[in-house]
Amino acid sequence: MTTTPGGPALPAPEPVADEPETTEDLLLRAAAGDEAAFAQVYDALSASVFGTCLAVLRDRDHAAEVLQEVMVEVWRTAARFDPARGTARTWALTLAHRRAVDRVRAVQAQRNRDQRALDEQVERPFDVVAEEVEESMDRARVRHCLDGLTPTQHEAVTLAYYGGRTYREVADELAAPLATVKSRIRDGLLRLRDCLGVAA
Questions:
Q1: Cα separation, 86 vs 40, whole angstroms
Q2: Residue 7 domain-assigned (yes or no)
Q3: DSSP 199
Q4: Which end of the chain offers a freer environment for a tag, N or C, measured as fewer CB atoms within 10 Å?
């Protein structure tokens, strides 16, 4: 206790407690690598950051993901924070808004790509689809009719018309006389014509 001249004793003054650190102070400490300070920054800002993200994204899962991205960015770029330009909360919410808008654009771009792909599959003109079906059926019929040829006819016709070889090249490859090869191809084509129902 202290006394005053001629007066009663006065109680000793209480020591002045340190003022609690502001979020700005904590962010500056986090910029220096103080993880404990960043944990306090996270606790102080995460609810506001999440709210901003949710307001833009309107999806809690996306908002939660962007919250984590923003807080990682706050940790990594804390050294860029300038207290003279605004509060830590304002800085973090600016980052949050930018990230959330980027996510909206990315999600919309993906939806647009998916829709274009779906449109290309669904909205093909009917005649194109019909033509593809017809070609597929024609190929199946030709394969069926080719299987009805004799082995030598099948081989000669396949080499000439699907392999793009001349009669001479087919004869050389089969080691058969040219006249024989021509006969096989002619007979094979006649049988194909009959099988496919093509008018002579």
A1: 19
A2: no
A3: -
A4: C
Claim to verify: residue 187 and residue 145 sit in the same structural domain: yes
Q: Which residues of 147-185 are buried (b: 16+ CB within 10 A; e: fewer)?
A: eebeebbbbbbebbeeeebeeeebbeeeebeeeebbebb
Other C-beta atoms closer than 10 Å to the C-beta of 88 total: 22
Assigned token pair, 45: 């800002």
pLDDT reading at 16 higher than 50 = no
Q: For the domain that residue 139 is a member of, what is the CATH number?
A: 1.10.10.10
Boundary residue ending a domain (63, 96, 122)? 122
How far is it, in rounded angstroms, from Cα 54 to Cα 58? 5
**Residue 15's pLDDT band (cuts 50, 70, 90):** very low
Whether the pTM exceeds 0.90: the reply is no
Phi, psi of 168 (to 5 degrees): -60, -45
Per-residue pLDDT reduced to its tens digit, 109-146: 998 888 887 666 544 454 554 555 556 667 777 788 88
In the chain, the N- to C-terminal Cα span, in Å, equals 129
For residue 188, which amino acid is it?
A: G
Q: What pLDDT score was predicted for residue 163?
A: 77
Contact 196, 142 (CB under 8 A): yes
Beta strands in the chain (DSSP E): 2-3, 9-10
